[in-house]
Design goal:
Blueprint lengths: L22 H13 L4 H14 L2 H5 L4
């Protein structure tokens, strides 16, 4: 009999990353994610991907 269940991923996500944020930062993330129909994880993946694709000179101008 064939094995049942979720199919194996070509790129399994085996690593965990933990980030500490303030209550205010967390609320901003939740609000943004909710208003754009995303999870916080999707939001963070998208943000990191965007930063990694952006030239360094432009990223330096984003710093507070």
């Amino acid at each position: 009999m064939a094995k049942m269940g979720r199919p194996k991923s070509d790129a399994p996500k085996l690593n965990t990353l933990s980030v500490r944020v303030t209550d205010k930062e967390l609320q901003k993330l939740k609000d943004y994610a909710d208003s754009h129909g995303m999870t916080i994880t999707q939001l963070l993946h998208t943000g990191v991907d965007l930063l990694l694709r952006t030239p360094d000179a432009e990223v330096q101008n984003l710093s507070p």
